[in-house]
Queue: 2 jobs
Job 1
Amino acid sequence: MANTSDIKKGLCIIYNNDTFKVIEFQHVKPGKGPAFVRTKLKSLTNGKVLDNTFSAGHKIDEVRVETRKYQYLYKEGDTTYHFMNNTDYSQISLEKDFLDSPDLMKEGEILTVVVRAEDELPLSVEMPASVILEVTHTEPGIKGNTATNATKPATVETGASVNVPLFINEGDKIKIETDKGTYQERVKE
């Protein structure tokens, strides 16, 4: 049994007879009245996201989880993703709802799968903080159109669309922040 001071990003809890993962949280101490924790929770069974506020000191049921390294193998159809455990080579398949940003996953990439300790049930897939992907399509930047932070859409090798600065061209490798799906920098190799 934990309380609101233990809430952190990625924590898995039981709330309203469902298992949720904390996506965002903010401890709030108003000038008047008691402190509270504002959270954004994602259901690990159906993928729905809900906002919830816990009063300070509220008891929460924490789910004991373990993390394992899995390699992303391939996507089947539009919703099923296949992974292989790096230690025993067993394979699992997960639905799109379990994944935070499936459009940024590249085949062969090593990811962390969170499983419930009691029954080995996969709960979610955690992406690395950033990924490096190659730009496969983007319009050329127009010279002289860089007065303010101008961006243009670009398609990367996984099919995701990301807004990038005008100087990025097809074939460039870029670093993308997986939490927000935003461009960070161009990678020179």
Job 2
Amino acid sequence: MTADGFWADRNYWAPEIHYYKGSFYAFVSFKSEDRCRGTQILISDSPTGPFRIHSDGPLTPSDWECLDGTLYVDDQGQAYMVFCHEWVQVKDGEIVT
């Protein structure tokens, strides 16, 4: 079951939960019939939820099939999302930020 107006309706895949700056962030891959698979971020005060929408839609490019977003924080504390540009579009797949 999804929140009213949530863009995805299938392929709820590969959730990862990360604790960052006092909150729990879920990086989850979603898809719908009319949109490419993408990774969206959800947030919660607890690792068991409930989670609410954090990002305004997927953070991955809208015309790419993407999955497996994860959090990476560099030595200077800068946060990045690393994800896979799926093989269905780029033969072997690509890891990108």
